[in-house]
Design a protein that fits this description.
alpha+beta; six-stranded mixed sheet; globular
């Protein structure tokens, strides 16, 4: 990760705006990366600093990049643009067709998603130096690879791996099934859902089981839409 002084003339050239929230405006650059321009005077930015114990967010991103490396399920910045010691802009690699888990396409290929989730959980199960319990389904993305794209909701602190996994499981389940909370489920997945919610297993195992049930009952489990309606509510 590279830290640069923030100068409009030197920042990557922008192609168009992707999105905007209370914390930043996000753009696609001409090199097809993601550029987030922080709203430094916003209440959301002040809350971000509080969340990170008043440390400068820039130093947190440096530490996170050192800890995770370049090829990780946490999308750490390529470059950070600093202004008076604060983060003004963040450049990140972005996957083609990237979607967050609360807005996955119904006709998403299910087998490809399950394979990517399996890889994601193989790394997630080894992470015990990060608190991921504030990550939301909007922070988790898929574009051929599953990763946590927004690092602002992560803390560098020793954490219970099972607690991390359980939280990420719940966010992935709520995102896929369009839920605010999980209230009931199909009787045939009750036990495996309970194990998923408490972090004993990953959500990839649960979704694979649902896929098998759907194929057995209706002979179809090709797309995400085939498993995201009646199994969990």
């Amino acid at each position: 990760m590279i830290i640069k002084s923030y100068k409009v003339s030197e920042q990557p050239k922008i192609k168009h705006k992707i999105s905007e929230n209370e914390l930043y405006k996000q753009y696609l650059t001409e090199s097809r990366d993601s550029l987030k321009i922080m709203k430094m005077q916003s209440q959301a930015y002040k809350e971000l600093l509080i969340f990170h114990d008043y440390r400068l967010y820039r130093e947190y991103l440096v530490d996170l990049s050192k800890l995770m490396g370049d090829d990780s399920i946490i999308n750490t910045p390529l470059e950070v643009y600093s202004y008076l010691g604060h983060v003004r802009g963040v450049l990140q690699s972005i996957q083609a067709g990237q979607m967050s888990f609360d807005s996955l396409a119904p006709k998403l290929d299910l087998d490809s998603l399950l394979k990517s989730l399996k890889v994601f959980y193989s790394e997630l199960t080894s992470i015990d130096s990060l608190d991921l319990t504030h990550v939301t389904s909007q922070d988790i993305v898929y574009g051929g690879k599953v990763e946590i794209f927004n690092p602002e909701h992560i803390k560098i602190v020793k954490c219970d791996k099972r607690k991390n996994i359980g939280h990420i499981n719940r966010e992935i389940i709520k995102g896929i099934f369009g839920l605010d909370s999980i209230s009931k489920c199909d009787a045939d997945i009750k036990d495996i859902l309970e194990s998923t919610i408490v972090g004993e297993i990953g959500a990839d195992i649960l979704l694979s089981e649902i896929s098998k049930l759907e194929s057995k009952r209706r002979g179809k489990a090709k797309y995400l839409k085939h498993i995201n309606s009646s199994y969990i509510k």
